[in-house]
Protein 1
Amino acid sequence: MTLADFFASPLQNAYDWVVRTTSGTSEQGPIVSVMNLSSGSEERQGWYFDAERTIICMGAFNSRVLSALSLDKYGNPYTCAILAVDYRDLAPELTGIISDFAPERIIGFPSFLARLIPYISPEVGSGVQKLCLGGEMITPVLAKLFASSFPNASYCLLYAAGEIGSISETTCTYLPLNYYHPLRGVTIEILDPDETGAGDLLVSKVLHGGISIEKYRIGDMARIHKNSCPCGYNLAFESLGRKGHDYIKLVGALLLRAEFDRVAIGMKTLFEDYRVEASQVLDQRTVKGKIHIQVFRIGLPGTEAFTTEIADRFSRELFLTPSQTLSDLVAADVFLPLSVEFTNVPFEQKHKDVKLFLKIA
């Protein structure tokens, strides 16, 4: 349904509808989508059915409200207790609240769940039976953290986009993490794949009301695998996240290629080109972000003072949230201090002009 159709017809039940505006990070501009909560209920039941005490931790307030509405609509409102958490709730008193709540299920984004774990005691974590996660890759660092923090929990994973809904079936136990079978009726393609088969994920799907979308670019990278699965499917796709593209999500922050370019332009007398490697580091029960920048400079060697100046300027000027620089997030113990390395060898220009890389291992 288009926005014009939505406003042209009176609502039969306003409680069934959600209007959502995306940020346009898939390079297709801002998108306004209208969703009917009464459609796709079978997809949601895999997450919400029989949940008695559920934590929702999407990070953003609007996401947690939408999930709470879905729980209220498709769970049993008389038995299902919901504890919704976002970034503003991360305070010492949250530990006692979660202990009293004793969740059986957690629904959310992997990166925000990692931020929440220091507030969940090992005893409470042992009582969690299911982790319903989506929206991001589960890296090896996160998988290790989740396994140790929730030893008795199984996964319920779903690949979806807020503007078009589910793209995958729910968890197939035969597939590795970050692999999915396409939802029945959904067609996936890879645009402009590189030498490994990785490229932009395109999705074709019929939405509620019979509206069709064709080759919609999600903004994620993926790779298609055509192998027979014991579950009966013959096709799976591997989600690679925003790896090697225009932005990377990391520990609740957004690393934008355009933002790195903006800061780099101000230092064009210091270096000619750069590459960024982002990764996650597990520090006891806390996942922190790590950024390493390699800079290319013609002629003069890069001294320690040279790399220190670049690290200081990137840290002070690079915004990773709308209001926080890298220096702010280092001070908040969310990121490790930035490291900078000099090279006098030009960077190899590969399949695409990629400057941001997410280190998975």
Note: The chain has two domains: 3-240, 247-358.
Protein 2
Amino acid sequence: MIHVCEPTLSELEKKYVMEALERNWLSSTAPPVATFEKAFAERFGVRHAVAVNSGGSALFLSLWTLGVRQGDEVIVPTFTMVATAGAVTQCGATCVFVDSEPGTGNIDVRQIREKVTTRTKAIIPVHIYGHPCDMDPILEIARDYDLKIVEDCAEAHGALYKGKPVGTFSDAACFSFYANKLMTCGEGGMIITNDDKLAYHLRHSRAYDFDDEKHFWHRRLAWNLRMSSLEAAVGRAQLERLDSLIDARRKNAAYYSERLKGTVEMLEQKAYATTVSWMHGILLQDERTRDGLQRCLADNGVETRTFFLPMNLQPVYKTSAPFPIAEDLGRRGMYLPSSSHLTDEEKDTVIRLIKTFLANPQ
């Protein structure tokens, strides 16, 4: 089986995990978590990194700590994974969806301003499949209306917008370390920020808000959203290897692009973006062809995924408003095996099966 995406582990992960086990470092308060946070903050050139138990928790905690509550609205791309919208709903706020721009799948920045109301509190740009959003117009809108920005960088560790890392443009930025991400802890997430006060409250809110002086004293509603030391040990090793993991994903994308050019449609890369090619996506002629190709690949031991299905079509968020670009991506798009350790032989198998199927689609 050629899996759509698997973690790429090495002896370094084993070394750091064994070090934690040998020293009895298991909990969220043991040294590996703080070590990982410090290294992550340094990598992105920010003052604070706050480790949590998932990317979804990172989004929720960021929004909550920034004051998003019932009655507020948050602008969200409809073409995203459900965790983005779910974080808004967890706060009691309302998602205001925006369609995708043609080409990349990212939020169409030209449509954001018209969605702003007196109840709008924040914007969540999602760097889809590792391609940065066009951040300058988003920053301008946020300044004009005094809005918060929470970047969803779950798929974009190390991507650059105009030469600057994504995640460094916002009040808070959220990363996922799920097993299929560019770097992983198995499960886990990270919030980065340059706001000292926000970081303080994030750290308290992820851990039941224990008082600094009176331990079993809790002034605010808070949760257990902490990362364990074993997860942090894996994350530290993955962070040290991040450049090589990204390089492998980019090579996968280049390999597919060169050999599938003219056979299938692919997402664009904008001039302002340095993508990390988390997953290599393709677009087929129509939904029927996409689904048929998926079945063909599965029958031959190749795992794939459809593109995200837009939030406006999901039962939990369904709306009658049309979002034509996102809906088209959801109907026609799929992504191919993209693990950082994927071999050329495995990619050749995928490419051969695609070309064979499209020569006689069923």
Note: The first strand starts at residue 48 and ends at 52.
Protein 3
Amino acid sequence: MMPDPAPTSWCTIHRDRIARNLDLALGLVPTGRRFCAVLKADAYGHGIEHVVPLVRDRGVTCIGITSNAEARAVRAAGYTGSLIRLRVATPQEAEEALPDHVEEQVSTPDMARHLRALRDAGRLRTGVHLALNVAGMSRDGLEIESSDGRDACRLILDLLGVAIRGICTHFPSNLPGQLRESADLFQAQAAWVVDAGGLDRRKVLVHAGSSLTLTSDTTIETDMYRCGAVLYGILRPDLGYRPTMDLETRVVGLQTYPRGASVGYDRTVRLTRDSRLACLSIGYENGFGRIASGAANVAIAGNLAPVLGKVSMNAIVADVTDLPQVQLGDTAVVFGGSGSAAITPEMAERQFDTIMADLYTDWGRRNARIHR
């Protein structure tokens, strides 16, 4: 489909806020540590091509991605620094990413053999990162607490040797006690890997820690922080981080309905008074999830208005009976805004029963984006 020249719902992306959030994050990085800007999921739905220049202009030397399409977009935006894939890849993915010089993660001997063959053929010119589980996510990292895991790790080290540029993990919890335990175990396991592989520790990037780790009061040892959430203002407003995306729509219908009339599918709501209702041009197609039926508010004309009935594919209904100033064509704020009528991250997470990272990536891909 062609882009809609007059979208009925849209995301406003605040590049100045992303830049400010990035500056704040870089200010927290201890001297001598590196920073990886995480731009996976199309920069959390904000548009990679619009975020890369902000990262590049601040001298950030590493970007984290997950897909080959993201890697190509980062390179197309003119970035020449390190690109790390933040999950393991299939052999086909890794091979197709060679032109973009993606540093892959490895956690199995089979993938190590494939990467070794690419390296021997002169096609793989980047280093790789050994991914450890560290009794954590149990997702794709190698668990070396077991004897089988240590044997697999030794084989990977034998196959790749000095090509191992990094040792990494991802902490499952940033609660102080659990973070401390995970960080200590990771350092111990990384030291074992360095010793078992005869690696030069000065040439190996031992890295873990996310935005939550960087902004935590618990200090950990890591050569690099990999951060996404703080760039987009998802957490720690007390430190000055601001949300970087607004989601808005329009009032496309205004009607008055009598007391007793039903609203939406399945007649789940009946009006308790004569009511003036606004039809808004957004629905679950645009990421306004049905889970929010009967539990959401939008902001119209500087006031909160409750959403009534079940969410439709392309429409929701808001009660504006007490807002006579609302007119056809007015903008309705689904997320963002300011003052007492702002739809805050806390409100959005409660209404949609999920986290802001999920909402951002969904909204940014389902709606038109306006970058400022």
Note: Residues 176-197 form the longest helix (22 residues).
